[in-house]
Predict the 3D structure of the following.
Amino acid sequence: MSTRQLQQIIPGAQTSDGAGVSLRRSLGQSQSARVDPFLMLDEFSSDDPDDYIAGFPPHPHRGFETVTYMLDGHMLHEDHLGNRGDLLPGGAQWMTAGRGIIHSEMPQQESGRMRGFQLWINLPAAEKMKPALYRDIRPEEIPTVPLPAGGEVRIVAGSAVGVAGPIQGLSTEPLYLDVRLPDGGRFDHTLPAGHSAFLYTYEGSLTVGEDLRQLPAQSAGVLSSGEALSVHAASGPTRFLLLAAKPIGEPIVQYGPFVMNTRAEIEQAMDDYRNNRLTEG
Ligand code: MN
């Protein structure tokens, strides 16, 4: 079985988004920093309310999916479809913008720690204009499975250690794992050879593959193609995400919250949004 190696390291860059939420962006910090079909990964993590209190007031999306996964804190999602979702520690939301959604994500706390991730996953052309869909995933819906050599894995999407997560059956076949390893711990996982994959360490650091290349904290590590992935917690207890999916292989034209295949489709999205037609089916 061919093994996956660490191919490229994308250190998270400090930036802000929404109405002034401080965050660290790895994938998506530039148009070349993408791993098809993954467009963006943001980590938000702060004990200072000034970094998060402004939240993400109502804004649109078209053409892709957004996944928010909370480690700490409390946010409220509301959208034009009338969905209200409480985002609690250990929970997630999986939102398929499709042809259009207008939503907000606002902090429900005035102090304490807010920490989590937002991932953007592209949709193939055939699905970019499908109706919007929102899924609220409560913390207890995400399986937490002990690993044989210590630590644990939480399975948001796809399957690991023989256990299926709540998100299944999407055309990009995403895998979304949150792994915790003790110092010196090891995690092995087999991936479909042609799927894109990357790691994101958010506590500690990892060594990856047979050549033991080091992936530092707060960095995305893009993996080579292959099947067998083996990582070690190199310098103390480590927590990381493993994300993988089937590449789409289509042209990408992005303008802010709209991700389409052509410039004309972006102009259409902007025109639809200005004329309150973005979300109409
Ligand atoms: Mn959004």
